[in-house]
Amino acid sequence: MRITRLFQRTMFGIFFLFLLIGVSTSVVSIYSVDLHLTSEYEENSRDIAKTIADASVDIILNRDLSSLQSLIDQFVEIQGISYIYIVNDTDEYLAHTFVPGIPEEILESERQVGETVTRNLAGMGDFVEVSSYILAGHVGSVHIGMDVSHVALAIQQAIGNQIYLIAIIFFVGIFASIWFVSFAAKPINSLLDYAVILAKGDKEEEPAASSEQILTRNDEVGHLARLFQYFSTVTDTEKRENEPDVEEPK
Amino acid sequence: MAHFGDMAKLTRRQLTQSVLASAAIAPWRAYAADPSGQASTVPSGTLTDSGITDSEIVLGVSTAFKGPSRGLGIELYRGAVSYFAHVNDQGGVHGRRIVLKLRNDGYQPVPAVENSVKLIVDDKVFALFGYVGTPTVTRVLPVLKKFQDRDFLLFFPFTGAQPQRQPPYDEFAFNLRASYKQETAGLVDNFVSIGRERIAVFYQADAYGRSGWAGVRAALKEYDKKLVGEATYRRGEQYTAVMRAQVERLKKVNPDAVICIGAYAACAAFARDAIDGGLEIPIANLSFVGSENLLKNLTDEFGTESERYSRWLVNSQVVPSYEELAMGSISEYENLMTRYDPTPPPEFEEHDYVPFAKSFTSLEGFLNAKLMTEILVRAGPSPSRALLEDAVFSIQNHDLGIGEMVHFSPERRQGLDQVYYTIVDNNRFVSLTDWGAKFAA
């Protein structure tokens, strides 16, 4: 495949343009997916915390704590939720899902209900914790911890899919641009060949089929070819007219 | 236990006994569930929505026949089967044999719920009977609420938790055993009475563990005291599990005693690691633990050295010791267990499980079956689910043959209240009479 220098620049331009689009789209996409998924996880967990909080009121006030444990055990089966604990209004732990016990970091931390708290629990990992008051805090509060690595994995998967798609579009775009450039360059190369033939002025040479084709083209290249042919003819005529008559030696 | 390979050695009397026992137990085997939990056969006669045919009364059982807690489900079943087999041998209840429709839930809540729906909807059983576990039963109770228009009742689950003892689900269940509240209160009272006031708990991280935890907490509150520490484990842990992290947590709070709310495999592992870790204090277990299986785990590993671990054990029980042969039902239990020697359901049998000749769990299953039979007798020749509750409430000061009268009423849906305490002596559980002499601080 022969690509004219003129189009080489265009092609590199297209390549860099695609690269720029790909990288910028990926960056924006990573940022928005990260933001969106993290916020979605937090929102979902907050909704779950609120659901548990609403369901807990009656259980804490009227029923056995095993029902409360049974309730949170069902929610902790949801993917992404790593732990749940419920404390009462005197900060006593009424139910939780920790094994082998409530981590020291949580026991020693100050309760921040309603806020998103980032926790690093020894031997367990990093977590984002959301919470909700039970009966406006008069009964206690529910706290839900999401495994950051799980959220990160979900984000990585979503971003990975986007980058995969962008990469496919990028490579298809590159190959398409090469094809388009070579498609556009082909008649120019033919024109160049034709111009070379005209420049040589070799009238004896049979006109090539490509030359015939290029002269019949109904586009700019065809016009240029016919113009070259015209100039060549005019130049030849002028050349002949300007040549001095040479007498035969007597 | 008679095997075909032993036939040549049997006397004519033993052979007759063996054939009779097999014939009596056959209904359970023929009408059990296959290993996948699906029904394999249909009962004889036409089973209507009532769970009653002309010849059978079908009770639905979902329990742990497999998994780390299978010893509980199997032993409870064996005890019940030995009595039902006896009843069937005597002609059944008003001419109907009692048949158990079995499903395995592995002591897991979701299969327990699925099994219960199948037992009610597909198998059309008369009532549910002999379930095992708090996390399972707690999740099954809403199923009974859902089908309340069909009057399904759950009889004598092997759990002392509160959810089936208090509103809104108490109306769907009848309990025979004392509650965990009563067991834990008894343990706390006794520990406090001998000066062991710093009490910690080791418990299963689920509804069962929480129920026991709440019981200990409430009992300590009576003395104006709090739990000094706690450690948890995940349901389904095997004896091979390492409990050192739990032991370390509890050692930090320097307890006088630990009350365990767990199943036998995990509690045996904890006792092992606690003693090895220097936590040489009384380790109490609730009745649910499965005392004989717990001890077997220790003796299997340590043989004669197991005394080093078992001497700190004190287990609460909700039935008398099976050594109390002076009690009518205990002696009957021993006779019938010997006569029928029930095997685990073949459909669920895992060949590495060796049943116990006698155990607290199978004795409880036996007593459950005995009282269930009494209720079915009182329900009359044309029993219906709608009238079953009246049959239960007709039981007033009924002598179950264990020295404690049983009575039920709309306000009292638990038959027994007595809690017994046992310790290990010569590799068997015996009654604890003097707490001070054994465990004084």
What does this structure look like?
The complex is a heterodimer of chains A (250) and B (441). Chain A has 250 residues and is α+β, with helices and mostly antiparallel strands. Chain A has a domain of 152 residues: PAS domain (Beta-Lactamase). Chain A has six helices and five strands, in the order ααββαβββααα. Chain A has a five-stranded antiparallel beta sheet with strand order 2-1-5-4-3. The longest helix of chain A is centred in the first third of the chain and has 58 residues. With 441 residues, chain B is α/β, with parallel strands linked by helices. Chain B has two domains: 259 residues, 3-Layer(aba) Sandwich (Rossmann fold), CATH 3.40.50.2300; 158 residues, Rossmann fold. Chain B contains 14 helices and 14 strands. In chain B, the strands form three sheets. A seven-stranded mixed beta sheet of chain B has the order 7-6-8-9-10-13-14, sandwiched between helices. In chain B, strand 11 and strand 12 form a beta hairpin. The radius of gyration of chain B is 21 Å and the shape is globular. Chain B starts with 11 loop residues before the first helix and ends with a helix. At the A-B interface, helix 2 of A face helix 4, helix 6, strand 7 and helix 7 of B.
